[in-house]
Design brief:
Low-confidence stretches: 386-401
Shape: elongated
Radius of gyration: 33 Å
Number of helices: 12
Strand content: 15-25%
CATH superfamily of the largest domain: Ribonuclease H-like superfamily/Ribonuclease H
Number of strands: 13
Oligomer: single chain
Helix content: 25-40%
């Protein structure tokens, strides 16, 4: 049989029952039930006055509140808000104080509480704070281990329109793979650019970027639509820390040269500006020597990747001991009878759950760790540490291995 819980009400009933038997004094009963004699006499008095109903818990709300806002003032505040639905509490109070100068009005914060309580204003949407894996530790020792990418700061051309240059480099050889001028930052143009690069140069092992659009998002693991595509191709998306461009210093150094030689002064339109970018790319790769390369040119060091871009993306097969779930279009996955929120970014994708402890799972998209799932509370959480290798994840999950 299951254990029965004992409530405070049960204890009070037992106290009164033992008192009515007459075998114990109030002092003895108070010691037995671990309460003061004053408390014991209080519950005896309640029982004598009200019976068993007197033993129930009473509201501790005060009978009166001298500083409570008068109901007439509350009604006037509500009417003013309905008449001016875009006005905040500060403006509403200023209006009412001029309309009824002799009235006593509450503080701005109290007025806001009144409007919230009446459902006339909504609270601010809480911003989700995502953890960050920290400074990337990996370094390139050969071409195509790490590519770096960024949208250089936009600038205005002579026709008054803006240019947003997307730049991609090979970290080891400093080879400028592309400098593509865009009218605006968009996932479509970015994906189109990388598709062309992957077909021409092959696939890198990693791509290092900042945390801006379209490379990262505020979803779990800061995963974006672009990085989901990279993961499908077997490319590890690597993020520098927010506000620390020095962690992608080689790329930023290239940007400084690009700005001096290809954007000052700017060209008349995007077509002419792109021609200038192409000229800069050729000179940067084939003519300009680099001290870090022993005065060699990037073209002398760089070679295409052996990993070719597949014509068709293959379905990822998770290990047999994984639990596999499909993410819905709304960004949720089903766990037993619960719908657990994850991210719209992974809509219609399959994710794998590897149990690392009782009711605790590492969650993967392909072989990329996106978070940790806690079955008891049906909640996904970020994984704080940067763990690029699955072997390290397993070792940290099972310290004894």
């Amino acid at each position: 049989m299951p254990w029965k819980g004992v409530t405070i009400m049960d204890e009070r009933v037992r106290f009164i029952s033992d008192y009515l038997d007459g075998y114990f004094s109030v002092a003895e009963l108070s010691r037995q039930f671990n309460v003061s004699r004053k408390t014991g006499y209080k519950w005896i008095g309640r029982y004598e006055d009200y019976g068993s109903r007197g033993l129930e818990e009473r509201s501790s709300k005060p009978h009166s509140c001298p500083h409570k806002t008068h109901y007439t003032v509350v009604r006037v505040i509500k009417m003013a808000r309905k008449k001016h639905p875009t006005w905040g509490p500060k403006k509403l109070l200023d209006l009412l104080e001029k309309r009824h100068p002799g009235w006593k009005y509450p503080a701005v914060s109290t007025t806001a509480d009144i409007l919230k309580r009446e459902g006339l204003i909504g609270g601010k949407k809480r911003r989700i704070k995502r953890s960050h894996p920290g400074c990337p530790k990996s370094d390139a020792t050969e071409p195509n281990q790490i590519w770096t990418a960024d949208y250089k700061g936009h600038f205005k051309m002579r026709n008054g329109k803006h240019c947003y240059p997307l730049t991609v480099c090979d970290m080891y050889s400093r080879y400028l793979l592309d400098c593509d001028g865009h009218k605006k930052i968009s996932i479509e143009k970015t994906k189109e650019c990388f598709t062309r690069l992957f077909r021409e140069y092959g696939l890198p092992e990693r791509i290092r970027t900042d945390n801006g659009v379209p490379f990262a998002s505020n979803a779990i693991a800061r995963i974006s639509t672009l990085s989901v595509w990279w993961i499908k191709l077997g490319i590890y998306p690597e993020l520098i820390e927010p506000g620390k461009p020095q962690q992608n210093g080689k790329h930023e150094r290239m940007h400084r040269t690009l700005k001096k030689e290809a954007t000052i002064p700017p060209e008349k339109n995007l077509k002419m500006q792109q021609e200038r970018f192409n000229k800069f790319k050729t000179e940067y790769n084939t003519l300009r020597p680099h001290e870090a390369l022993g005065m060699k040119r990037p073209v002398e060091v760089y070679s295409n990747s052996k990993r070719e871009m597949p014509k068709k993306l293959k379905h990822w097969d998770y290990p047999s001991h994984y639990n596999v779930r499909r993410v819905s279009n709304s960004g949720n996955f089903r766990w037993n009878t619960y719908q657990v929120p994850l991210s719209h970014t992974l809509g219609q994708e399959y994710i794998g759950f590897e149990e690392i402890d009782d009711g605790i799972y590492n969650v993967y998209y392909c072989d990329f760790l996106i978070g940790r799932f806690f079955e008891e509370i049906h909640r996904m959480k970020d994984v704080i540490k940067r763990l690029p290798m699955r072997q390290r994840i397993v070792k940290e999950s099972y310290p004894g291995t």
